[in-house]
Amino acid sequence: QANEAKVLEMSVDALIVRAKAIRKALEDFLFKLTNEHQTLTWPTVLDNFALLSGQISSLLAAMKSEKMPALRNYPIVPVRLSPDPDPHLLALTEGRVSLMSHTETPNYLRTKPDPAVEQAERQLISEVGLHTENVSNAQSQVAMFNKQCNKVLEKVKTARANWRADTVTSRSNPPTFNPKATEELVAAAYFGRGLKPPQSLASQPQINTSTVTSFAVRGTMPVSGRLNTGVRMPVTKRT
């Protein structure tokens, strides 16, 4: 029994520390909203919300932990109710609760929402239920859209697989040219590498003189002569 009480006390102390951290973060955020609203930026607001969300999630995780005793088995029952302020209670709650009267105690120890709040919640739930058909239509449209997206994704994956297969096949094909021969052709075209030099004029054979034979026009005798220049001589017509 003593060990269980000690575990309960340590668990409650840990929850109190986490709750104080959340309260401090809320106070700082409210102070910024009140006094620094002109210079407050949206990223700063988001950072504060993220901090509060993380602290609340940590508190809930600690309450649901296996090491945490079942707090629902330890109800809080007021020992004495009085309409007069209680200094000890005021100091214990750091100025938040000044008395435990018959009017305030049900609100402090309430485990369910106020009846008016419950009625408003039921009304909202009933109004949401009227739009169930629209919700089902939206869900069907979302399912159809997801189906189309999956089809497009499958096509993209198939095209990518085919492209990779074609790339591998093209890389495995044997080359259709000889790199060495290509280099030799380029070197021969640009630098004349491997070409034979032209023969000199002295080594070329001399051109022999040609015999030019000219025939007279209209039945004249042919006149033949040997020329040294190799040029055809003009022919004169006899009258």
How many distinct helices?
7
Q: How far is the N terminus from the C terminus?
A: 162 Å
CATH topology of the domain at 1-74: Methane Monooxygenase Hydroxylase, Chain G, domain 1
Order of helices and strands: HHHHHHHEE
Q: How would you describe this structure in keywords?
A:
7 helices, mainly alpha, 2 strands, 239 residues, transcription regulation, two-stranded antiparallel ribbon, Mediator of RNA polymerase II transcription subunit 8, nucleus, 3% strand, Methane Monooxygenase Hydroxylase, Chain G, domain 1, activator
Give an overview in words.
There is one protein chain. By secondary structure, the protein is mainly alpha-helical. Among the domains are: 1-74, Methane Monooxygenase Hydroxylase, Chain G, domain 1 (Up-down Bundle); 77-125, no CATH class; 137-171. It contains seven helices and two strands; from the N terminus they run αααααααββ. Strands 1-2 form a two-stranded antiparallel sheet. Helix 1 (2-35) packs antiparallel against helix 2 (42-63). The longest helix has 41 residues, at 132-172. Mean pLDDT is 78; it is low at 206-233.
